[in-house]
Amino acid sequence: TQLLEQSPQFLSIQEGENLTVYCNSSSVFSSLQWYRQEPGEGPVLLVTVVTGGEVKKLKRLTFQFGDARKDSSLHITAAQPGDTGLYLCYNNNDMRFGAGTRLTVKP
Amino acid sequence: DAGITQSPRYKITETGRQVTLMCHQTWSHSYMFWYRQDLGHGLRLIYYSAAADITDKGEVPDGYVVSRSKTENFPLTLESATRSQTSVYFCASSESAVAGLQETQYFGPGTRLLVL
Asked: More exposed terminus of chain A, fewer Cβ within 10 Å: N or C?
């Protein structure tokens, strides 16, 4: 079993600030997905990363896959209240989600 | 409407009662999943199904039963509900779940279950 550790567990920031959240594993991922879950809804896929060192951008969100494929990060530039939600990483090798980072962006 | 739906959206029941949560998808996706979500645990897989009449256990299957007689439906039954099964339950579907294919899972809106 490949445990996923996400940090921080909670993050509360002001609109306009930058932030980074992390997903780490004790072993190598074949691939990793990031989902966002807004309050009262199901998770929605943001991105899939596959190659070590890969960087993907989705508007103000930048996803990075570690060179050794054991970690990933999500960086949000100039956060907005609409970014509020639970950010989850997922390893489809063993169908496990991390516990998530709960982000609150205050106006 | 196309998509994935769950019913009921909210359910209150008592300890020992049988409860069935419904999930329906209109995409003809092969794979369907049931997760429960509790604070501090993220989403944990209960059961999944690769096709009609094929189901398999996930991380936390005890106390739950599933069936899949039709591709589009994947009901989850709590045979004798316990307070520890109070949770939010999410159903999801994907075209595939084979490791390495990085398929997208599409989630329903969730069912909030309270067991008294």
From this structure: C
